[in-house]
User: Fold this.
Amino acid sequence: MDSSMGRKTFAIVNYFLLGVLAILCIFPVLHELAISFSSAAAIAAGEVNLWPIGFTTSAYEFTLQREEFLHATGISLLRVLLGCSLNMLLTLLIAFPLSKESVLKFRTGYVWYFVFTMLFSGGMIPGYLIVKNLGLLDSIWALVLPGAVPIFNVVLMLNFFRGLPKELEEASFMDGAGYVTSLFRIYAPLSMPVLATTGLFTIVMHWNTWFDGLIYMNSLQHYPLSTYLQTVVVNMNLGSMSLEQLKQFQAVNPQNAKAAQVFLSIVPIMAIYPFLQKYLVQGMVIGGVKE
Amino acid sequence: MKRINQMPLHLMLLPGVILVFIFAYIPMSGAIIAFKHFVPSKGIWGSDWVGFENFRYVFELPGTTQVIWNTIFIAGMKIVAGLVVPIVVTLLLNEVRKTFFKRTVQTLVYLPHFLSWVILSSILIDILSPSGGIVNKLIVALGGHPIYFLGSNTWFPFTLVVSDVWKEFGYGTIVYLAAITAINPALYEAAKVDGASRWRQIWHITLPGMLPVIVLMGVLSLGNVLNAGFEQVFILYSPGVYESGDILDTLVYRIGFIDTQYDVSTAVGLFKSGVSFVLICVSYWLAARFANYRIF
Amino acid sequence: MNQRKLRLKVILALLSSIAIVSGCSNANNGNKENTDAATQNASPTQSEAGSSAGSEAVSPLGKYETPITLTVGRDTGANEKYPEGDSVENNVWTRIYKEELGIDVKVAWSALTGDQYDQKMKLAIASGNLPDLMAVTTQQLAQLVENDQIEDLTDAINKYPSELFKKVFEDDGGIAMKSATFNGKIMALPMQGSALDSSNVLWLRKDWLDKLGLQPPKTMDDVKKIAEAFTKQDPDGNGKPDTFGLGITKAIWGGSPNLEGFFNGYHAYPTIWVKDGSGNLAYGAVQSQSKQALADLQTMYKAGLIDMEFGVKDATQVNQDINANKIGMFYGKMSSPFFFMSTASQDPKIEWQSYPLPSVDATPASTQQDFPVQYYYVVKKGYANPEAVIKIFNLQLENSYGSNADLTKRINDQLYAHANDSEITSTQVVSAPIIKGGLPTQNLNQYLNINKAIAEKDESVLANNVEKTNYKYVLDYQQTKNPSSYGTWAIVGPTGPFKVLNDYQNNKQFVLTEFIGAATPTMVTKKSTLDKLVLEEFTKMIAGNKSVDEFDKFVQDWNKLGGDQITKEVNDWNASK
Assistant:
């Protein structure tokens, strides 16, 4: 029998440890938030810690006023919409058959067909060439199609599907249903945690990936947000700026613009996450059939 | 049990198979560039065949042995820590009763993933500073000597691993928490009835329930055995710690700086993939042979 | 490497920084060049399209009767803003090229100046997808020449240059064009920069010097004394021992702060190729003069005059320390004010002053300078009208410096149409032109003219819009200490670094790299290893982890690892010049 003293101590220690961990994780984010609201001079001198110094909203104004920023956000949203829908659909369609061990012919062959591509790649040039030859350069499809099959998510989901009791499906087969019904009416609804997990991962992937935007898009106007942020933030090349631009640079030091950008790109994800959390922890409520 | 028509299953797989063929296998044939002396005007197919010359070139560079060792060491530590830490945190989180606290912590630990290494480097330099950083202040307060985390060859790999795990462990916890929810609650009830302590419940129910996912994540992470994390290392390393911090990717990057040698970088990529592939195959085979378990 | 490009671009930026100008007229008294472009443009010559070597009058600014197309892969600035309806593909300059020259410029792709542009450019080459015109690096140029992928521009350059064009490429002694010449053929149009602008200067907190009663440094001994005073005597007056004497970064070379200037004081030129005693070329880092420099740095480090964490801090962090009043002395460039202007502009008590490089002995120190050209414009092989590129450059130069009032007015009317919006004007004047480059003494002249105008209260010496505008900013800061004018004043103002650069120029106190070719075969395979060795060993010696007596062994290692092979190749190249 657990001593309630022991349990209490454990609980306290647990909360403390996790609390410290959470603080360690949020500290840099708060630091960046403070920087995004601080003045260039204060940032340049390294004075900012967790609280803004020389409070100013100029970094956010600068960012949000740029038409390119808003435009790039639009492109990213479109990419996430198209890309994630495609990803989730394909993940389901692939994980389901692959989870039918001892039923599906060539199952192992299929699995390795997919997993192999997680390890081996031809590199940037062949990838670019295929996109170019298909005429997809500069279009949203160049960002959506190459990564349309997220193998890692597929493997996660197939693993989960394997764990579901076979009786569920067999029951429906008795009623004359086929595999398609089984997938969409039985397996998918029961898979909320894994759907939420893979959904989150694919959303984050499409929202954050920036390198493909750089090589497949031919102008800054077509960049998704993540690629755009790389241009404004990481590579602010002082040398190419005129004295006027440099003066603006004085007012909006890259570090506060950088921080503002980071924030603006985290916000959507953090908005979605709590929403998905509900599904992440949804237990398995199997109508009627419990092991 | 009547075998129902499999065709729908194969049809379901078809779109994926086609897409992967187009966007993964066709470009993969371009990996042949690793065995050629790439001249852009001749294209990949027209360039001259040089066999393993590119591989030999990289391996014969002075210091490559040290670099490969660094890569394996750092990547290895990251794989292990990257497995253990999320699992432990997940188990701890699972014990938390207050949903609000649980959800909040879950959200917060995912945040570092979104900060780039460029941003984190200035923070790290600050807090790890031997002459005033918080961490060293703590160490000194506990009676120790300041440690030059980013500047000493002894500590640099450790610093890399800890900061990387800190940044990414939130990702793993999501997966493991989802896995825990799939465990049948009836098992816990039965165990309680039998008088099992919470600890025994974890050991006999939770962990085994997570095992398939843990094994999966572990094996897949073997795919990163030679991927010590280019962006992080590149930003954090410095000449003083080249000895312990230079990895395969930073070496290749510096070579390519003068001349864009796609053939060499693809060769190194192939080498990395090859090693990962072998490790994963072996793990798969071992599990299949000895535990009759298909990892995927 | 990027730091060097950075400096170059600063030069170019200063070169054509915007002028929010009231009038559009150009007082060109300072510019004696007269082109006959005025007559040329009044009546556009016919049959330019498909012009070949022949008897027709070739004109530097002649318009193509039938418009020709030119596809371009180009870079864009970080903060561009176009007026409504305009874009990088369709803007004031693309229209000007069409109207004035009959060239229809189509942008195939664009990417941010710097790493991103380089990435796309290399991708274009590797995938065999060259646009008609593109800027490439030295190394890419050599490859493209070798693989016969670009047009020979010799004819075009010989037949179509304007007077300004010639001046731009003669003022540097012809080295830019030389570097683009392979087997007697000019294969690219260099993006002309300025070697002078890359000179090293010593930056000091004058207010700290005054406070501690010190004199500006003339010798390396002075430098050491000042470093010690700055470290030990609490110059920022905050009661904490948190200041350092000399700022250096983990990268050691390049950018601001750098150490090249320090080494130059010992007559060592660590990152370039120089003539050794016997007339051969040798690499600066392994010259014996470097040894003494390292020894003194080690002494300074041991004494705490250099931040013990310099080995992990990059330029951003060190500049942060500079802005936080922790560092009072560093070696930098004429563009260094950009890195401390956010704090210095806000606090007039902070006084940064630049000085010529002190020397270790009686011989004055010479600064090393970077090769002025980092990018070359190349034309895809088979393009029918390579001279179009020359004409475009002629036109741009004409507008920047020319005396053709008609033409300039026509263009400026469009360029400054949104004069009240500095971002738009800046984009149109600075970023939008597709070929960049200008006179090497551009910025030096600006400094001389502005300060002459101030001293003699005579604005007529100001040669063009840029000088006029910046003159106003300099006056503004002098009179009102307006923070947004600080940057201009700090660089081209009377107390700015160009005073030092002017002296360097007049006294010939500079050393340019002798090797201006593309990387030799062994450089391609071994240079990164050698550079790593230099960085590692120098860092260890400075930090006292290795004795400076090991320098000779370091040189031996350097040679063994490929250094002597490279030296041989460089000398072969030199002999065949």
